[in-house]
Amino acid sequence: MPAEAGILTRIPRLGARKLSGKRTTKTPHLTSPRIRGEGRRGTVPSTSNRRWVQGPCAHRHGRRPALRCAAILFAKILPRTSGIVSILVFLAVIGSAAIQASWNVATKRSRANKAALLAVGWTVLGAGIGVAAAASGDLRAAIDTGAWKFALASGLIHGAYILTLSWAYAVGELSVVFPVARGVGIAGTAVVARLALGTTLSWAGWMGVGVVVAGTSLIGLCGSTPGKRALDVRIAVLVGAIITAYSSVDSMGARRLPILVLLAAMNLVAGLVAAPVLAWRHREATKAVLKAHKLESLGVAVAGSAAYGIVIWAFRHTAAAYIVALREVSIVIAAGLSVGLLGEALNRGKIAGIGLIFAGVIIIKLGA
C-alpha cells in the first residue's frame, strides 16, 4: 500500500456540508474519487455554490486542517526523496554546510598565521582520533583489508589543501576564494564521478549541479576589485582542483574504511605534510600558535572534522557529486558571515549568485 494510502483511509468521507454546520444530502461529486485513488476525476462544483466545501481536508465547519493536509503532502513527497538524496542525508549535509562556512570564516578572521593555525590543530586532533581508532580495532581492520591506501591518499591531498587554502586566505577575499573553490570542486567531482567512478547522474542532478556552479562562479567573479580578481580566482581554482581530488578519493574510501580511520589520516597525515613548510617558512608563526592560539586552532580543526565526518557518512548513501553540490549552501552562509564579521561588500552579483545556489539545491532535492 502506498504511503499516502494509509493516511487517506483514515480520512472520513464527509460529503458536502454547509458552513453553518448542518448536514445536508451527500453530493458524490464533492468527494473526489481521484483523491481516494479510484482513478476517476471528480467534477468541480459550480461557482454559484461557493458555500460548499470539498476534498479530503474539508472540516465540518468549512476550515481546512493544515496538519492533515501537510501529512498528505509529505506522504506524497517521501517516496521520491527516499532515493538518491534521502531526507536524513539532505538535512545532515545542510548542517555540515553551516559548520563548513563557520570554520572557514573563523580561519580567515584569525590574526594567527593561517597555515600554522590549520596544521597545528589538525595534527593534534588527528593524533587523538588515531588513538581512538586503534583502541576500537578500526585501524587494525583497515590495515588487514588494505583499505589504508585510501586513508593515506586522503591525508596527502588534505596536506596540500591546508597549504593552498591558507595561502588563498592570506592574499584573497573570502567572498571570492570560497565560492570559486567550492564551485570548481563541484564541477570537477561530477566529471570525475562520471568518467572514472562510473556514477550515473540524472538530468535533474546535472541541471542542479550546473546551476550551483553558475551561482558560485557569479559570486566569485563579482566579489573583488578587478585588480585582485585574477589572482584570487587563480588561487581559488587551484583549491577547487584539490577539493575535487580529495572528494573523489574519500567517496571511495568512505565505503571501505571506518570513519575514525579516515578522519585520523585526514588530520594527522595532512599536518605532517605541512610540517616541513611550517618549519622552513613559518617557524615563529607556529610557535605563536602553540603559545597563544591553541584553543582557536583546535576549535577550527574540530569543526572541520565534524563537518567532513558528516560528508564521509553521506558518501556511503548517495553519489559524491550530489553531496558536494548540496554542501555548497555553505557559500550562502559564508557570504552572510563575510558581510557581518569581515566587512566585505555584498553587491548585486553576490545576491544573484546566492539565488542561483538556492535554486540549484532545490533542483537537486526535487530531482533526486
DSSP helix fraction:
over 70%
Mean pLDDT: 75
Strand segment count: 0
Oligomer classification: single chain
- How much of the polypeptide forms β-strand, as a percent range? under 5%
Q: What series of H and E elements makes up the topology?
A: HHHHHHHHHHHHHHH
Distance between the termini: 22 Å
Structural class: mainly alpha
The major sheet is characterized as: none
Low-confidence stretches: 1-64, 70-84
Overall body shape: globular
- The overall number of domains is 2
Radius of gyration: 26 Å
What does this entry show, briefly?
The protein is an all-alpha fold. 71% of the residues lie in helices and 0% in strands. It has 2 domains: 1-80, no CATH class; 82-366, no CATH class.
Describe the 3D structure.
The chain is mostly helical. The protein folds into 2 domains: 1-80, no CATH class; 82-366, no CATH class. Helix content is 71%, strand content 0%. The longest helix is centred in the middle third of the chain and has 28 residues, at 226-253. The protein is globular.
List keywords for this structure.
single chain; 368 residues; mainly alpha
List the topology elements.
Blueprint: H1 3-8, H2 66-81, H3 87-109, H4 114-136, H5 138-145, H6 148-171, H7 174-195, H8 203-221, H9 226-253, H10 259-281, H11 283-292, H12 294-315, H13 320-326, H14 330-342, H15 348-366
